[in-house]
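The protein record minuted underneath.
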Amino acid sequence: MEASVFSSAQPLAVVPQFPTSYQRGTQRIALPYLNRTIFISVDDILCLQGEGNYTFLHTRDRKRYLVSKTLKEFEKTLDGSIFLRIHKSYIVNLAYVQRSLFSRERQVRMADGREVAISRRRLKDISQQLAQYWLRLLN
């Protein structure tokens, strides 16, 4: 039996796909972390996961930061052309969406392998916004 080319011990590279028109590295978020403030580039955020009045920021280096802000607050400040609220508990960075399944599963697969559910109510709108984003990638 032949060994698999891909080793499960080595994580897949988390590589974003931004449109050429997008200005990378221009926006940072300040996070209180371990009695100090750290700055994270919004380009490095894969997704934001809401937990009540708190939000987990998941970054491309596979770190997770807990912030005492709601998803709604983040939704107001993040660039709507790159970040999309796909569920009441999730905002995703479209640059890290690898594929989407709109049939039975209703989910997107992120570059780190995470699968995030898509809201049933907003399925049509989300599928249109994803299609527009991927069109911008090709142009």
User: Anything to note?
Assistant: Confidence is low (pLDDT under 50) at residues 1-12. The longest helix spans residues 123-138.
